[in-house]
Design goal:
The structure holds 2 protein chains of 2 kinds.
Chain A lengths: L1 H14 L23 H15 L12 H8 L1
Helix pairs in contact in A: 1-2
Chain B lengths: L1 E5 L2 E4 H10 L7 H14 L7 H11 L4 E7 L5 E7 H4 L13 E5 L5 H11 L4 E4 L8 H8 L3 E4 L1 H10 L9 E5 L5 H7 L7 E8 L3 E6 L14 E4 L2 E5 L13 E10 L5 E6 L4 E3 L2 E3 L1 H9 L4 E11 L3 E10 L4 H9 L10 E4 L16
Parallel strand pairs in B: 1-6, 5-6, 5-7, 7-8, 8-9, 18-19
Antiparallel strand pairs in B: 1-2, 3-4, 9-10, 11-12, 12-13, 13-14, 15-16, 17-18
The chains are: A mainly alpha, B alpha/beta.
Chain lengths: 74, 366
Amino acid sequence: MKEKVYKIILNIIDDNDIKIDNLEINESTLLTNDLGLDSFNLAQLTVEIESEFGVDIFENGIISSVGDILNQLK
Amino acid sequence: MIFWIERDFEISYNMLIEDLKNGESSINLSGYNYFLKLLQILINDYIPENPDDLINYILVNKDRLSFQIHTSGTTSTPKLVDIKLKNCVRYVKINNNSEKRIWGMGYPVGSYASTQVFFQSLMNKETILYLFGMDFKLADEIFSNYLVTNLSCTPTFLSMLLINFQKKHPSVVKITTGGEKIKKGLIDAFKKIFIRADYINIYASTETGSLLYSKSEFFKIEEKYKNLLKIFNDTLWVHESLLNNINNLEDGWYNTNDLVEFIDNKRFKFVSRSNGYLNTGGYRISPSEVEEAILKIQNVIDVHVYGKSNSILGTILCADIIGDKLSSKKIKKELISSIEKHKIPQVIRLVKFFEHVNNGKKKIMI
């Protein structure tokens, strides 16, 4: 599951041509602060994750980090 | 007294009066300059001596003053709508409390909602902190430094703040959202950060001004509006007496094209728009305008743009595209130079055919 989530995030970064120095993703990575995702990118992320896992990660509150996403999917 | 804060600049009420006297801005700030110009248009050749003069002039002349706002029409071409000042200040409340409020404005200037916040603050000689376009990484620092008391923004802007906050902000006592539908999950989430804040949800539009208020995602028509607002064919209609200057009326009523869904015999929520427009992150978008832009890209054969319900933006913009040698990344890069960012579909699928409904039209998924 973790690898699939990381792959989705990397795809969104590439798809939107977001430039990041020293890109590294782990559970403590912050979606906006570290990865530079904006509201449109986060909306895309919810769609891609829902499509893969059938879960709307923002349905029950706010997600800040990659770890928060993984917790929602458990 | 500070009138306007934008980035690291502070404009006092006295500086505003000086700029009105001089007929030009002393500082180049996009938000401040927009509202300075709006005030210049409103008061025309009247020159106030001080802030109280300006406020009194607006109050006394509100019934005859108006200004214009660009809005999307029923075609993809933006149009100018005349805004009656009396409609704009319809719900302005005078704050009798000696403590002045700091208004966090999370709407873009030029939107109707931003003018509501502007006049609410101006008429009370309070301070606006212009937040739209802020670096969300600085959210905690900005809210701690300026001690925002009243936050007005779209649900999308509120989501972005909450995603970035690391600490609680008890200075905020009221949050007002509008411009798009809100989900209960977001209302519950903000209470963990804005621990003292009350919540108000507003239904407003450029054409109608502010009409409905609620403390949740559900609205009901107040008794005083029972002959001026009606739900017909699951759509909200507004009597002409409440409107700004609108031409396309049917027997004195204006069709907002906003579809509602009743949850009991009085309360309803807004679900979508019936005129084909999509509301994504508070922006009104014409799918046909986006389709036109995509069709201009080399190797695109056909395109279908539609909306899909989304927890962050209310509705996310999607595009199914038929064509050769294309990728989502390539299409997004091409669109950056032809349309505004919020009009670029976030989800792009390359497909071999479209799903169609029985009447032969492309299927719209909402």
